[in-house]
Amino acid sequence: MFSKPIFSLLSLLVATSALAAANITSSSGTVFVTTAEGTRSALVTGNRVENGSQIVTGNNGLVVMRFDDGQVVALEKNTDFRIKQFRFTAAAPEQGNAFFSMLRGSLRAVTGLIGRGNKAAFRLETPTATIGIRGSDWMAALQNNGLFTGVNNGGIVINQGANTLLVDAGQYSATLGANTSQLVSFSQLPANVFGSLPNLSLSAAAGSASAGSVGSTAGTAGVSGGAIAAGAAVAAGVAATSNSDDSTATHHSPPSH
């Protein structure tokens, strides 16, 4: 039987092991990370970002990160993104959570094991609204005091006070004020609102997400011709698009203006 001090220590170790974050699979231009302790440094391919980190991209910055549950997040230039809380254990991904915030800029995200196991465990907070997921590949951009989204696969939920809006594959939304979230056509979005995000190739590599991947660089990634090929080692359930909550569409290219 464990003594109280030993039991407390073991509990702390278990809790700490559940804290996780992401590996940088591709980084170009100016990208900085500030840790939860306040240390700021340049962020390059192969680095690891931890729980509580803030990632900021400059005028020419572009970065792709693969989280330990297989989730992939790409940040466009001039983006301010924070990992508020990311907890993941391979044995029980549905008990983890992925809470993020974006103060400015734009991102694209592909759902990982946490979001597939428990959709309520994912949340992206912005100054305009909060975004939840339903198993998806989606984009979000903050511009001119508005929030704009587009969904390539699956769906997202825009929560803004009493207003809740579902955005499914091939759809776009605009939130321009209090309780104003609505579906819009692509032509109603600001020009080039998502930057290079629609053209990114976020491809899954063979392998599985596991706690053992902590501290390693995941897959291969590079920046070529403005597109990023991010190696995201994900479990079969993450890469599958046959789940009932996902659309069979893999990517919707925005129509030209």
Automatic annotation (TrEMBL):
Key word Signal present: yes
Cross-referenced InterPro entries: FecR
Domain FecR protein stretches: 54-154
Keyword ATP-binding in record: no
Signal peptide from the UniProt entry: 1-20
Superkingdom assignment: Bacteria
Keyword list, A-Z: Signal
Name listed for the protein in its UniProt record: FecR protein domain-containing protein
